[in-house]
Amino acid sequence: MIEEYFRRRQALTRVLSTPAGAYLDALATELKDQGFGRWKLRGRIVGAAHFSLWSQKGGVSVSRLHEDGLGRFQRHLGRCRCRRPFQHSRHGDVCAVSGARALVEYLRRESLVTSPPPSPPIQEQPSLVSAFNEWTRQQRGLVPSTLRGYSRVIREAIEDLGSDPSKYTAQALRTFVMKRAMAARRSCGKETVTAMRAFLRYLVAQGLCRTGMDDAIPTIAIWRLTTLPRYLAAADVDRIIGTCGEDTAVGLRDRAVLLLLARLGLRAGDIVAMEITDVDWREASIRVSGKAHVQVKLPLTQEVGNAVLRYLHLGRPPAATTERLFVRMLAPWTSLGVSSVSALVSRAITRAGVESPHRGAHVLRHSAATEMLRQGATLSQIGIVLRHEYLDTTAHYAKVDVRRLREITQAWPEVVPC
Fold first, then answer.
1. Do the domain assignments include residue 410?
2. Could you tell me if residue 271 is inside a domain?
C-alpha cells in the first residue's frame, strides 16, 4: 500500500530501508483509516521513517523508541541536513513529529516497543481531594470539568484549614469562604460555596467531620433572577442556522448541531456525548445523557430529524470508527469537544452578522427556552425539555414574556399628599 504515496522509487527505497521500514505499510493503512489525505499521510510516513533513522544514529533501536525523544527530534528538524526525502521545510516539521508520535504509539500497541511508557505528570493531590473526587463521581455523576473546579477550592481550603477535618470549626469555615469569595468575582464566590458544601457533606458521610458543619457555609448573595436570560430573537436564530450550507460535509454537520441546540435546548456537552445509537428513528426520539448521567428521551422533530439524517448519509465520514454522532471533519476523525461546539456556534453567529455579546452554545439553549415560552408552553413543560431539576431555574425565563407580565402588573400607586 505504501507504494502509492511515493512517485519516485528512490525515495520509497530510502524510507523502507530505515529501521521502521518493516512497520510503515501497516502504519500507512492505519493513518488512511483515520481519514488522512495523500500528502499529509505521506508526510507522516516520512516523518516516522526519519525519526527511526535519526534515533538509530543516536544509538536508539526501534524497540527502545520513546515519546521523550520527540522534543529532541523536533529540534533536529530545525537544523536538519539529512538526504531527501527526509529533509523537511519548516511547515513540514509538525507533520514529521506527528508521524514520529504515530509510529511510537503504533509500536506500543503492537508490543514492539520495550521501553516503559512515559510517566504521567505528577500532580500533588491531597488524599482527601482524591477520595472526594472519586466518591462524588460515583455518587453524583459529576463531570471532570466540574470536579476540577471543586478540587481547586478544596485544595485551598485544606491549605488554609489543615488536613484534619475533625478540627474544622464553623468560624474557620466561614472565614475561609468569605475571604475567597471577596477576593474573586461573584461567580467564583458561588463556586466556593457549592464546592465547600459538597466537600463537607462528603466528610460528614464518611464520619470525618462533625454533623451539620455544612450548615456553617454562608450563602453568597447572588440573585439569579435579577438578570434577563441571554437569548437571541427567533429570526436571528433562523439566520444563524441558515448560514450552514448543505453542499458541504461541514455545513451538514453544523446545521444538525445548531438545530439540536436551538430547537431542543441541548447543552454543548450533550452534543459531544451523543452517540449514533441514541437516535431512535422508529419512535422519532433522541436519547440525551445530561448532568449526573440522567438519561431522558426528547422528541425528534421533522426539521431536526431531517438535518441529522442528511448529515449521517452525506456528511459524516463513513470510515469514522468512533460511535459518537458528531465528529471532526479533518483527520483524525475523532469526536468533537465542548469548545469545538461553542466555536461552531460562534462562527455561525459571525457569518449571520448577528450582534450578540454572548456567542457560545448556551445562548441557543436560552433562546430555545424563550421561544417555547412565547409559543405558549408552560414553565413546567419547558423545565422538562431543558431537564431542569428545580422549577425556579426555569422560572428565570418568565421575565422575557413581556405580554404576560403586563397582564399581571399593577399601576404604580400615586403619592397621596398629607
1. no
2. yes
What amino acid positions are annotated as catalytic residues? 267, 291, 362, 365, 388, 397
Q: Are residues 101 and 33 in the same domain?
A: yes
- Of 109, 135, 168, the residue at which a domain comes to its end is 109
Average pLDDT on 378-384 reads 79
Residue-level pLDDT at 408: 44
Average pLDDT over residues 204-214: 90
What domain count does the chain have?
Answer: 3
Specify whether 245 is located in the same domain as 325.
yes
Kindly report the CATH number assigned to the domain that includes residue 264: 1.10.443.10
Kindly report, residue by residue over 38-62, the tens digit of the pLDDT.
888 888 999 999 999 999 998 999 9
Domain that holds residue 210: 127-222
Least-confidence region, from 260-274, 302-316, 329-343: 329-343
200 located within any domain = yes
Q: Are 146 and 183 within one domain?
A: yes
Q: Give the mean pLDDT of 186-193.
A: 76
> Which residue, of 49, 79, 109, is where some domain finishes?
109
> Highest mean pLDDT range out of 1-15, 164-178, 225-239?
164-178
78-137 confidence digits (pLDDT tens): 888 888 888 765 546 788 899 999 999 999 988 998 878 776 555 567 889 989 988 988
Q: Is 283 exposed, middle or buried (0-12, 13-18, 19+ CB in 10 A)?
A: exposed
